[in-house]
Design goal:
By secondary structure, the chain is mainly alpha-helical. The protein has one domain. The chain is built from 20 helices and no strands. Helix 3 runs parallel beside helix 16. The longest helix has 31 residues, at 277-307.
Length: 374
């Protein structure tokens, strides 16, 4: 090795701080969780690799003209990546269970309780309104919504917020059951809800994304880009006229965007900026946001249990979050622990689809609130 290379190597080691080393280890842990534990591998794998890249010294990879810098400016600064993801999500989402049982929309609203309670907690702890709103939106349990809102309001917190949103989303099967067990009685968990399928016509399925886009955009204009992307993807799915576009949205667009989005999120995890007390506070409040969402959904489910004459299973309220269809499956499995012949899945799918819509609307409401305050 010649002298010039040795000097470059020594300079690299000199520029490598302990914070950089820690974050590269964190990146390795995320990669391990994605591969070995199958925790959101589509996002955690590129996020982990991006975290390693951004902490390597002297690469200039995150500079404005660097590889990750260019990707950040193209997809995050312009807000395109989260919107692309929503087109894919819309193409993959079946809103049929919600259309068959529209009252589940109430649970989708109740499942956003964590957003606003966490926002108030962040304000109490001294974060400014933009930062508090960005932290609160973790409670949407929807990575693209969290990225979209935080990139607008507090881009310096994008890294911990995105990592928190996706990491906790993968832990929903661990987070939700204890809350459901704590808040419900044995009798409530065993309530059987007979499922009578109502046929949803193709016309209704096609009109639904168009009407929702118009109504939500008029009520909450700030949510228009998010809801339009989600509903456009769903319209492609339900129309049946552009199957090539439907498959492209579900596969190529979703996969490529997730790849680039993940590695760019990882690039924001620079050790010297990431390893701060406020990051730990964000991680803690993010967990509380998830718990509060489940509490809000289950408590509203208990209200429906009372109002229905004890014919509504309050466990379904836990599915009123955006983790679709993961949360609905968790409700089904949890309910069957107490009554193996109890089938709650289709009811929970309706609440879960409502939660997907509710998270988008809540993101627009948060942006509108902050805009009004400022």
């Amino acid at each position: 090795m010649d002298l010039s290379r040795m000097l470059v190597l020594l300079e690299a080691f000199r520029e490598l701080s302990w914070q950089n080393v820690v974050m590269m280890i964190v990146g390795g842990i995320l990669i391990y969780l994605a591969i070995a534990k199958d925790y959101e591998p589509l996002l955690l794998l590129p996020i982990g690799f991006g975290a390693i890249l951004t902490n390597l010294p002297l690469t200039g990879i995150t500079n404005e003209d660097g590889f990750l810098g260019i990707l950040y400016n193209f997809g995050i600064a312009t807000e395109l990546f989260p919107l692309f993801v929503f087109i894919g999500v819309g193409a993959m989402t079946d809103f049929g269970p919600l259309l068959e049982n529209p009252k589940m929309a109430l649970l989708g609203a109740a499942g956003q309780f964590g957003i606003f309670s966490t926002l108030m907690l962040a304000l109490f702890l001294g974060f400014n309104i933009n930062e508090s709103a960005s932290i609160g939106i973790i409670g949407a349990i929807d990575g693209p919504t969290a990225i979209y809102v935080s990139s607008k309001l507090a881009p310096h917190l994008l890294g911990p917020i995105a990592v928190c949103a996706y990491s906790y989303m993968s832990l929903v099967p661990i987070i939700q059951p204890p809350v459901m067990r704590l808040l419900t009685t044995d009798a409530e968990r065993k309530v059987r809800m007979p499922y009578t399928q109502k046929e949803v016509t193709k016309t209704v399925r096609i009109l639904f994304p168009i009407v929702v886009t118009i109504v939500v955009s008029l009520i909450s204009p700030k949510a228009s880009p998010l809801i339009a992307a989600l509903m456009f993807g769903n319209l492609i799915r339900e129309s049946g006229a552009v199957e090539r576009l439907n498959q492209a949205a579900q596969n190529e667009l979703s996969n490529l965007t997730a790849l680039f989005l993940g590695i760019v999120i990882g690039s924001t995890m620079n050790g010297e900026k990431f390893l701060q007390l406020q990051t730990l506070a964000i991680l803690g409040m993010g967990l509380l946001a998830f718990v509060f969402d489940t509490i809000g959904g289950v408590l509203f489910g208990k209200l429906m249990y009372v109002l229905s004459g004890k014919k509504f299973n309050p466990l379904i309220g836990a599915a009123g979050i955006s983790a679709f269809p993961m949360s609905a499956r968790i409700v089904q499995r949890f309910g069957q622990q107490y009554d193996f012949e109890n089938f709650l899945l289709m009811h929970a799918m309706g609440a879960n689809a409502a939660g997907q819509l509710g998270s988008v609307v809540a993101g627009g409401v948060v942006l509108a609130i902050v805009a009004g305050i400022l």
